[in-house]
Amino acid sequence: MVQYPSRSSRTIARKPVGPEDLAPLFPMELIKQEVSTERWIEIPEEIQEVYRTWRPTALHRAYRLEKALDTPAKIFYKYEGTSQAGSHKPNTAVAQAYYNKKEGIKRLTTETGAGQWGSALAMGCAFFGVELKVYMVRISYDQKPYRRILMETWGANCVPSPSPDTKAGRDMLEKWPDCPGSLGLTPTTPWEVCSTMCSCTRLLSGKRLENRWKWPTLTQISLLDALGEVPILQANSFLGLGIRLVAISQI
């Protein structure tokens, strides 16, 4: 059984989180990527093989937007919705599933709001034969049954959050039995499952971690390849905007 440092001891120490703190939650290769200063990280052939089922994605030029803006600039965009899950999120979900499989992890858990991340991860886990349990914000679980069905089609177990699986979920349900859930509450469930209940289960995150944001950069790399030149500005999100500006300035 993994021994976890108490919350109070970490608070008193006031030290940055290190690899030993993340080890109960994530595979070591993803932890290394979290702190890596390398400019390039090699993509394993097994991941590339899965990517090739929908990549490369189409490059479009926004002629009408250029005209509406009356700008001499050329505006291009990459449409990342051609993946089996219908979003850009398999770019990182497939990689996370692969690295857990490589380290012998058989069970994974995660949270999802509207279901895009859960669907992407269910797809990734299906490719590598890893068991997945998804905690989905209850209001979305009720309102978006087809997202849940998509996850279940790929073999994932999708349950609404708050869930009686954890203390946080039970406490909330006791106070508010009809709680619709939220993106503030739902992520606490897989974290609690991994850190206090089941040492054989690992966590996958669609947000919050640095390694999660490294894998979508392949969208920008493929954009550069397609254009054959360095664009003035490129981004696939507001967070991506700042990252890409820094990256382009170094090319």
Based on CA atoms alone, the radius of gyration comes out at 20 Å
* Separate helix tally: 14
Helix-residue proportion: 40-55%
- Quaternary status of these chains? single chain
Characterize the overall form: globular
Arithmetic mean pLDDT: 81
Report the β-strand fraction as a percent range.
Answer: 5-15%
Number of strands: 6
Largest sheet features: 4 strands, parallel
**What series of H and E elements makes up the topology?**
HHHHEHEHEHEHHEHHEHHH
What structural category arises from helix and sheet content? Answer: alpha/beta
Distance between the termini: 47 Å
Spans of at least 5 consecutive residues whose pLDDT stays below 50 are 1-10, 237-243
Placed side by side, the strands forming the largest sheet appear as 5-4-3-6
What can you tell me about this protein's structure?
Helix content is 48%, strand content 11%. With 251 residues, the protein is α/β, with parallel strands linked by helices. Strands 5-4-3-6 form a 4-stranded parallel beta sheet, with helices on both faces. Strands 1-2 form a two-stranded antiparallel sheet. Helix 4 (45-51) runs antiparallel to helix 6, helix 6 (90-102) crosses helix 7 and helix 7 runs parallel beside helix 9 (145-153). The longest helix is centred in the middle third of the chain and has 13 residues, at 90-102. It starts with 6 loop residues before the first helix and ends with a helix.
